[in-house]
Q: What sequence folds into this?
């Protein structure tokens, strides 16, 4: 049997049990203790925390996300660090009003729909055997047959906790996308996953108009937020404008175009701005940060949610700040190619 250790999370002094082969982050999230995290694979550095007492195995931490001086100063990446003995870490944070912490759990389910949203994008709808609570914008990890896992954002609303929708981009030669999801899986197949993960989610306490900015399958978490906001509107609890910019390279990459166009036609508070950057398009052309600057020379007073490849997220972040939106009103999710 695998050895277990006690992890104490300061400043609240919360104690939990972590297996020797389990990441500290996983143990915390499964016990309802919130630690900042994003990629969960040792690359982004979001989960960096100080180990106040005891020793950890640093695991597969990227040398860019955890530099040598971090290690020397007693820091580790909690998503890949495993305990070698009882440890004390710094990190327990309180979330703002209106955000629930939903402990990570394992789920099984059946693929209800697996269809082509675009030539290189699959839409997977999974019927879960048990409902999963999550905040709009969070993601799940699909368990691959080889024991590895891959993160995908949930595109559906939390109001449908037993049926989740994912958007999966094919990565040429990728073991998960090209080899497994695009070739082996079919509707009706069983599937297992864990979740919910991530800190890119809708912040209900920010009672402001929304600017949603996505590239490629970065649309997925934004669609979840959009659906959630539409439900708030149906209940008379939403009174702001929402603009969605969705940037893709070619017209073929523009998925959910019809759904979003109709969604916008039916709602006067919602504007849909598709953007194609690398070919002629019967609509607006250009990258999302450029279109944003054209439409929002001043963006103060909004909340912005950005999701896409790191270059797009970085450029959009800069464009928003140049438009005088404070960083505290900007939420970002960098999508790395999960292959
Ligand atoms: Fe741990 Fe990204 S490095 S969440």
A:
């Amino acid at each position: 049997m695998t050895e277990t250790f006690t992890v104490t999370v300061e400043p609240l002094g919360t104690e939990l049990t972590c297996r020797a082969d389990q990441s500290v982050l996983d143990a915390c999230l499964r016990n309802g203790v919130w630690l900042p995290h994003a990629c969960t694979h040792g690359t982004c550095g979001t989960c960096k925390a100080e180990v106040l007492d005891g020793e950890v195995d640093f695991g597969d931490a990227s040398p860019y996300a955890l530099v040598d001086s971090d290690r020397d100063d007693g820091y580790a990446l909690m998503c890949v660090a495993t305990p070698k003995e009882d440890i004390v870490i710094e990190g327990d944070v309180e979330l703002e009003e209106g955000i629930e912490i939903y402990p990570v759990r394992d789920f099984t389910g059946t693929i209800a729909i697996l269809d082509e949203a675009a030539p290189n994008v699959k839409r997977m709808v999974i019927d879960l055997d048990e409902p999963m609570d999550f905040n709009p914008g969070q993601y799940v990890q699909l368990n691959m047959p080889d024991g590895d896992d891959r993160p995908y954002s949930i595109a559906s609303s939390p109001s449908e906790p037993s049926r989740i929708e994912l958007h999966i981009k094919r990565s040429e030669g990728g073991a998960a996308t090209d080899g497994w999801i695009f070739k082996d899986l079919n509707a009706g197949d069983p599937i297992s996953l864990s979740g919910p993960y991530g800190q890119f989610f809708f912040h209900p306490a920010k009672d402001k108009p929304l600017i949603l900015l996505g590239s490629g399958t970065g649309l997925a978490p934004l669609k979840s937020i959009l659906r959630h906001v539409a439900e708030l509107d149906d209940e008379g609890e939403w009174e702001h404008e929402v603009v969605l910019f969705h940037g893709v390279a070619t017209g073929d990459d523009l998925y959910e175009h019809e759904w979003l166009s109709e969604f916008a036609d039916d709602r006067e508070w919602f504007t849909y701005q598709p953007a194609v950057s690398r070919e002629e398009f019967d609509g607006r052309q250009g990258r999302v940060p450029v279109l944003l600057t054209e439409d929002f020379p001043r963006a103060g007073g909004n909340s912005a949610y950005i999701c896409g490849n790191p270059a797009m997220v970085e450029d959009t972040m800069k464009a928003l700040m140049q438009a005088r939106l404070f960083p505290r009103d900007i939420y970002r999710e960098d999508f790395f190619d999960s292959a």
About this structure: The pocket of FE2/S2 (inorganic) cluster is lined by residues 37-40, 42-47, 65, 77, 79 (CB under 6 Å).
